[in-house]
Amino acid sequence: MIVLASKSASRRAMLDAAGVAYESAPASLDERATEAGMVGAEPPTIAEGLAVAKAQAVSPLKPDQTILGSDSLVVVSGQRFDKPVNRDAAAEHLRFFSGKEMHLHSGAALVRNDEVLWQGSDLAKLHVRTLSGEFIESYLSAEWPAVAGCVGVFRIEAMGVQLFERIEGDQFTVLGMPLLPVLGALREIGELPS
């Protein structure tokens, strides 16, 4: 059994569906402080770095267990976006995303006894359709506060799918974790049968 260093419902659902035995132990981590040490790093490096930091934050609490950390970040027109701090910020993000290509970077890492066993990331490109003010308001009325904890202000498995006209990339990456590489790494280290 592995330990998922996250409380993310979508990440838990992915592991459940894939038949991976795990327990959830969300990491207590100041993500912005962790990122401060990665100034100038490329988005995939930041996503992987945050995934490693989350796993390493949980590792001392779960000795000899494999910890899975994961993180996602969004870049639109060269600008990095974090989870919205409130509904007004969410509306502002959506107005900015309208008609643009969103780059969603999802990173993951496996750590045991503070040692990084594996890390990787994947990119999905989501083409946001032109969003009217009326749509943004009705969308947030239906989805807020559920999307408050979602980078990109969407749950693709819910009404968030209406934001996009086209998606390039792996569905698991869009959901918040590069699952296929994670499963491969779990097989490589003996946590899953090959």
What keywords describe this structure?
alpha/beta; single chain; 194 residues; Maf protein
Sheet bearing the most strands, described? 7 strands, mixed
Q: Give Rg in angstroms.
A: 17 Å
Q: Percent of residues in helical segments?
A: 25-40%
User: Architecture in CATH?
Assistant: Alpha-Beta Complex
Number of domains: 1
Helix/strand class: alpha/beta
Distance between the termini: 15 Å
Mean pLDDT: 96
CATH class annotation: Alpha Beta
Could you tell me the strand content as a percent range? 25-35%
Q: Helix count, per DSSP?
A: 7
Please trace the helix and strand order, writing H or E for each element: EHEHHEEHEEHEHH
CATH fold field value = Maf protein
Number-wise, the strands total: 7
Shape: globular
The low-confidence parts are none
Q: Layout of helices and strands, plus pairs?
A:
Blueprint: E1 2-4, H1 9-18, E2 22-24, H2 31-36, H3 43-58, E3 66-76, E4 79-81, H4 87-97, E5 101-112, E6 115-128, H5 133-143, E7 164-168, H6 171-175, H7 179-188
Parallel strand pairs: 1-2, 1-3
Antiparallel strand pairs: 3-4, 3-5, 5-6, 6-7
Helix pairs in contact: 4-5
